[in-house]
Design goal:
There is one protein chain. The protein is about 70% helix and about 0% strand. It contains five helices and no strands. The relative contact order is 0.11. The N and C termini lie far apart (about 40 Å).
Length: about 100
């Protein structure tokens, strides 16, 4: 890695929205973005939820997604079995409900 690499990475982030370092570890980059956005969604969203759920159940689903994506962005590469299940569940829930996440 040269001393110019951080400058190149910053330039790519500013011009393309994602730097080469982000692409090298893309799953962590996306998980961090999703977690941050879901946390903001939960904080800023008016009370609303998919019609087949209750507000309480929807909040629980959002919390599970945030928890799993946060775990995935930790600096660890090994997880306890329950943590791995939480990470997998977050991905499954996000895939199922991503079109219901809007303000």
């Amino acid at each position: 890695m040269t001393f110019l690499h951080p400058i190149k990475n910053l330039y790519l982030k500013l011009t393309r929205g994602v730097g080469c370092c982000d692409l090298a570890d893309y799953d962590h980059y996306i998980a961090k973005k999703i977690s941050k956005d879901l946390t903001l969604y939960k904080k800023e969203s008016p009370q609303g939820y998919p019609s087949h759920l209750t507000q309480e159940k929807w909040d629980e689903i959002i919390d599970k997604m945030i928890k799993g994506f946060d775990l995935h962005t930790s600096d660890r590469y090994m997880y306890e079995e329950e943590e791995g299940k939480s990470i997998d569940e977050a991905g499954e829930l996000f895939g199922k409900y991503m079109f219901n996440i809007w303000i």
